[in-house]
Amino acid sequence: MNKFSMFATATLLTVGSLTSSVFAADYNLKFAHFWPSSSGVHTGFETWAESLEKASDGRISVEFYPAQTLAKAPKSYDAVKNRIADITATVQGYSANRFPLTQVVELPGVASSAAQGSCVIQSLYDESLISKEYDDTHVLFLFTHGPGDIHTKDKAIETPADLAGLKVRRPTTVVAEMLEGLGAQPVGMPAPNTYPSLQRGVIDGVAMPWEAMKSFRLNELATFHTELGLYTLSFVVTMNKDIYNSMPDDLKAVVDTHSGMDWAQKQALVFDDLDTLGREEAVKAGHSIITLEGGVNNPAWKPVLETATNNYLGALEDKGMPARKVYDRAMELSKTCL
To answer: How far is it, in rounded angstroms, from Cα 338 to Cα 77?
Structure first.
């Protein structure tokens, strides 16, 4: 064999090997989300993907598109529905009025940790109390972050009066009503937009958990923190329905074993650990941290938050939705999900 033939053969073998490794999977799934690739949240999703790939013997592979590189955070759910992405992890409340019963979990006092909140929301889904809201995709699992608190750039917040006139980022309309009742001016924006907005003075503070203060580097800017457990934000990891339905039964079974409560709790533990790290980061930096006695039951805060809760549930009931039934069940679950 001459040198040219040997080179050509080697090249073909190399190309063949690369092609085999790239296209070995029967399903190459595009997973879009808005967290930075450097965040612990992204690492949690990678753990899920690696387990999925291993369990499928490589017949399913997952390609990540973090930091809104494939779809903007508010459009992520529709991106999966319309098959721009195959899987997403996103906030239901970014699509206003689309998941109203799910967002009952955001109300004050439902959960005090990501593990507890994730148990509540996954249970509500498993009991078919909120599942109809997701008929256009194939849900893998649902979870929440830990307690959402108030973090400000230039002012300590001890009473609702301290919030008067402050522009505070809110994640959803549910949280917006609470902040408005407390005297703040809620400003809606997805988490990735908060750093430049806080830096430029577009907002004075954020309503977020400690995890987000670390994941989105907000501890660099906000040095005053008020812990009260204002809300717990809900998330969904969901898949394009047609892709799931196209899978053979054995691969559907693999996906099914990577769904539900087990993985809801695994992702919740990631958030709870990151909450600890985010708070430690602020303590190390010498920030001011105010922990309100009683949290949302503190006498100065409770009346406003109770009003916001009743207003939200009442508005849904007026539209014929079983909001109080879902809320009552969520509160029951919160006791058993401890």
So the answer is: 30
